[in-house]
Amino acid sequence: MGDTEIRDDRAAGRLEALGGGEVVGRIEYFVLESPARALVPVHTIVEPAHEGKGIAGSLARELYTLAEREGVAVAPLCSYVVKWAERHPDVAPPADPELLSAAKDWLRAHPGRF
Q1: CA 27, 59, 89 angle in degrees (round to 5)?
Q2: Among candidates 15, 5, 23, 9, which has minimal Cα distance to 74?
Q3: Which of 38, 36, 47, 35 has its CA nearest to residue 4?
Q4: Parallel, antiparallel, or unpaired: how do β-strands 38-46 and 22-32 relate?
Q5: What residues does 15 pair with on adjacent strands?
Q6: CA–CA dist 104, 1 (Å, integer)
Q7: What is the structure's pLDDT at 93?
Q8: Contact (CB, 8 A) for 69 and 43
Q9: Which residues partner with 43 through β-bridges?
Q10: Which ranges in 1-114 belong to alpha helices (H)?
Q11: Positive or negative, the Cα torsion across 94, 97, 44, 17?
Q12: What is the pLDDT of residues 53-103, one digit of tens each?
């Protein structure tokens, strides 16, 4: 991924990959509070000029690292993060079905958020 930096913009609900002073990729997420606290990634986006450089995978890995540091689960709704987690069970434990259900309910209740 080269000299790309990843930062968490929690207020905006974005984990951003920065390269050359600009955002080149991001995971959009929200924080689920109930039935337990969890990070819920909804979309992974990499700018077309930066695709194929491992940015999306680095963002997914950082999301799980962040969740581990905070002692919370990840309940992925983003299809990319789901597939990435399946390929990396060593760092991405399976999501709790109850959290996934609650995350889907939250998303339906907030249709304009994503």
Answers
A1: 110
A2: 15
A3: 47
A4: antiparallel
A5: 8, 27
A6: 32
A7: 94
A8: no
A9: 28
A10: 55-70, 79-87, 97-109
A11: negative
A12: 999 999 999 999 999 999 999 999 999 999 999 999 999 999 999 999 999
Helix (H), strand (E) at residue 8:
strand 5-9
CA-based angle 91:64:109, to the nearest 5? 130
Which band of pLDDT confidence, cut at 50, 70 and 90, is reported for residue 2?
A: low
User: Cβ-count burial of 20 within 10 angstroms (0-12 exposed, 13-18 middle, 19+ buried)?
Assistant: exposed
- 3 state SS of 35: coil
E strands present in 12-57: 14-19, 22-32, 38-46
Please check the confidence at residue 1 and state whether its pLDDT lies above 90.
no
User: How much is the average pLDDT of 39-45?
Assistant: 98
